[in-house]
Amino acid sequence: MLARLIRPSLAAVRLPAMQMATFKTIKREPKTVNIYERHPRRLGTENALTHVTDKLMKQFDPQGVKMELMNPKSADRIKPGDIVQIKTTDGSLFTGLTMVVDFRGLSSNLLLRSKITKIGIDRRFKIFSPTVESVKIIRRATQKYTAERLYYIRGHKRLDVGDLEASVKKAAAKRKKFLFK
Amino acid sequence: MLYLKSLINCIDNSGALLVECIKVLRKSPKNYAGVGDKIVCVVKRARPIPNGSSITQKARKGEIKRAVIVRTKKEIRRPDGSYIQFDDNACVLINDANEPVGNRLNGVVAKEVRERGFTKVASLAPRVL
User: Fold this and answer.
1) For B48-75, what is each residue's pLDDT tens digit?
2) Of A119, A124, A131, the CB nearest to B83
3) H helix or E strand, kind and range, residue A41
């Protein structure tokens, strides 16, 4: 019913052809079409997700250095209790005791704890992130821990960390002195 | 995650030691304050003023002040996916022009403080993380 009512009114409004030609037409740039890679399943791989993660892993960690540090099967892996230094692309360094090693593919992360100006700081780094420039093990764990995840060292009288940055610097200076004696 | 009645350490030399949040500024009522947010607070504990001394302290017990949060126990997520969390909640008293009331800070400050426009607070800190 409604459509029938509107139709005649529209016809009445319609402008003559002469007038319509005066409008300026906007020039549009030619449309670009993105050409994507073929779907992994069609390439013959089993799983789309593994295909993508493998590709990204090669991009972010071409030499496999980070993988060796994180993989639980490798001998040189980072273990809870190790002191690790991480350098990020903005030029800052963070030294901390490893509380948790979380191996979960591309989003593998380390939870580090340190104290700066007597305030405890916990930082979680995604190791395969391109913002993480380098990961260095400075000192292996000096004692045996009973747990895999050392959340309990926070605020512990004996086990909690001190200012690791300062102690690492001190140790380096001591070593230097010993070498040049 | 700081809101009404939260007790926060004050880390500048204004004289205030412990403050209580009474209002989170410019946030919806159900929200909470994080690093870089402004609050209104009451000074609950202040450094004692010795008798007969001429030193005038900038913050006294019972005064209402504004402050900016610089550290939180709740972890902060960074754009690159990393997290940072501190062992305590801390703030710095500021004036209306977002400048610190004191002239010295003891303790680290999160990077977000500078990003939110409190450059003077960040420049006073011994370390920005």
Assistant:
1) 887 777 667 788 899 999 999 999 999 9
2) A124
3) helix A40-43
Whole-angstrom distance, CA of residue B68 vs CA of residue B41: 10
How would you write B2-29 as a 3-class SS string? ECCCCEEEECECCCEEEEEEEEECCCCC
Q: Which domains does chain A have, with CATH numbers?
A: 52-179 (2.30.30.790)
B126 to chain A, minimum CA–CA distance in Å? Answer: 9
With an 8 Å Cβ cutoff, is B128 touching chain A?
no
Beta bridge partners of A100: A111
**Under CATH, which number does the domain B7-48+58-124 receive?**
2.40.150.20
**Which of the four pLDDT bands, split at 50, 70 and 90, describes residue A136?**
very high
Split at pLDDT 50, 70, 90, the class of A47 is confident
| For residue A179, pLDDT beyond 90 | no
Q: Cβ of A27: how many Cβ atoms within 10 Å?
A: 5
Name the percent of chain A lying above pLDDT 90: 48
What is the interface size between A and B, counted as CB pairs within 8 Å? 51
Q: B53 to chain A, minimum CA–CA distance in Å?
A: 30
Which one, of A81, A99, A95, A97, lies nearest residue A150 by Cα? A99
User: Do residues B8 and B67 touch, judged by C-beta distance below 8 A?
Assistant: yes
**Which one is predicted more confidently, B50 or A142?**
A142
With beta carbons under 8 A apart, name residues in chain B contacting A117. 106-108, 126-127
- Residue A15 clears pLDDT 60, i.e. is over it: no
**β-strand pairing of A93-102 with B16-24:** unpaired
ipTM: 0.87
Distance of CA A86 to the CA centre of its chain: 13
- Closest to A131 (Cβ–Cβ): which among B80, B84, B107? B80
